[in-house]
Amino acid sequence: MKKKLLTVIIAVTLALSMVSCGSSEDNVKKELKEKEYEEIDSNAEKLNAMTGQSLYDGITAANEYGFSVECKSENSGQNLTDYINESDDNEKKSYEITDVLAVGGSKSVTFTVANELDKEAIRIKETLSSKIDNGHAWIAMKEYGESQFPNGFDLDSITGRISEDALDENTWFLKATCTVTGSDGTSEEFTCEANVSGTNEIPEVTNFSVY
């Protein structure tokens, strides 16, 4: 009887010991995982603080932290990732980071960047927009088209937008698809472009063509 009792006690002790070891091991794994997540979040914060630094430094840090990198232009909004990946270090250093979005959960970072040409283009666009913004310029283009095609002119300046550029500090160049209705009631799609200057109050279409 004593032997049986002793055997039971030993078995229970071993079982409790195994449970304790298993629980301890799980806790260690959990702590390591939490530290890993904390480090990832910390690295994301470091990347998010890199506004004003060179793109080269940003990419170097992101690679060190194991973050995937995407780059886009501050001026045009275009995705520059492929271009940047093929560029040399000097080209990467010529771009300044103007905005950062680093996400720890996905270990990804998007750098919005601008070089000197971009900065000049942005300055020109801001100066032009202070006189006549893009919205008023598109409206002026639409109204001018309607005056030229009284039977029907529909400018698709949203989904059909092709180009919206500041030619200089005084003139927008706008290009989009449009639908023109003839005197016989039939409609056909064309491409329409215009130069628009002036002010929000008094816009002026200086060039207009449909083809």
UniProtKB/TrEMBL annotation:
<protein>
    <submittedName>
        <fullName>Uncharacterized protein</fullName>
    </submittedName>
</protein>
<keyword id="KW-0732">Signal</keyword>
<feature type="signal peptide">
    <location>
        <begin position="1"/>
        <end position="25"/>
    </location>
</feature>
